[in-house]
Amino acid sequence: MLIVGELINSSRSQIKEAIEKRGDVFIKQLARDQFEAGANYVDVNAGTFYGREPEKLEWLVEVVQQEVNCPLCIDSPNPDALRRALEKHQGEALINSVTAEEKRYKEIVPLVKEYGARVIALTIDESGIPDNREKRIKIAEQLVERLVADGVNEDRIYIDPLVEPLSTKDENGLIALETINYIAGKDWEVHTICGLSNISFGLPGRKFINHAFAAMAVASGLDSAILNPLDKHLLGLLKAGVALTNKDPYCKGYLTAYRKGLFK
């Protein structure tokens, strides 16, 4: 299970303020906390800085990688911001994200190839986010086919089925889970990923929804997740889920994480 730490996002008021004031101590500590909690990638997002996103995202990349020796998930639809961030990035980045929208695809994929990055592919096309599993699967298959034709290996592609809040539509949980299950079951090397906490937006007791959805997503074949790695209960649940689905030989990953104190 690949973990992307989601906390350095300018949509969070504390993060936005720290970026604005160049509060590198706070940003570095949050990066280290996520890395030490088990994050394989640390997500960086400066999307709320309209007109200033490129410089802010570049700064985030430099600051975070001064503190932690891990690759970053560079989270932006802005090709200028992505390029500036990728130029500073050390190691193999994960770009978040490309879609089936023609303009965005043509802007982002050349950067994926130029910088040797992995890429998250969202199941969105010119019509927006589909309201059913069948259309999301169709977009996912089209994206994989096109990305591979453009020189991106299957095992570097992470399909995001786009988890939408359960509070806005009763079927949203099942749509995401069924899409994950189909993609994970195909005979290819493509990965699945999603933002787990999106499912609970607008509902009370969000952690209960998040944890239940996480367990169901792993059982459906999810192999990567964007989440809060400081939630030790959630981390333990995911490690256990991977073992229970026969993807952790001899429970080595579970036992190693437990001995490191990554969950309780």
What do you see in this structure?
Belongs to the vitamin-B12 dependent methionine synthase family. This is 5-methyltetrahydrofolate--homocysteine methyltransferase. Keywords: Cobalamin, Cobalt, Metal-binding, Methyltransferase, Transferase. InterPro entries: Dihydropteroate_synth-like_sf (IPR011005), Met_Synthase/Corrinoid (IPR050554), Pterin-binding_dom (IPR000489). With 264 residues, the chain is α/β, with parallel strands linked by helices. It has a single domain (2-257), classed as TIM Barrel (Alpha-Beta Barrel). 48% of the residues lie in helices and 14% in strands. Helix 3 (53-67) runs parallel beside helix 4 and helix 9 (232-244) runs antiparallel to helix 10. It is globular and about 40 Å long. The relative contact order is 0.11. The mean pLDDT is 98.
Which CATH-level-2 architecture? Answer: Alpha-Beta Barrel
Overall mean confidence score, pLDDT: 98
Q: Assign a percent range to the helix content.
A: 40-55%
What share of residues are in beta strands? 5-15%
How many alpha or pi helices?
10
CATH homologous superfamily, by name? Dihydropteroate synthase-like
Whole-angstrom Rg? 18 Å
Q: Write down the CATH class.
A: Alpha Beta
Shape: globular
Helix and strand run:
EHHEHEHEHEHEHEHEHH
Integer count of domains = 1
Order of strands, main sheet, comes to 7-6-5-4-3-2-1-8
What does the main sheet amount to? 8 strands, parallel
Strand count: 8
The CA-CA distance between the termini, in Å, is 18 Å
Structural class comes to alpha/beta
Poorly predicted residue ranges: none
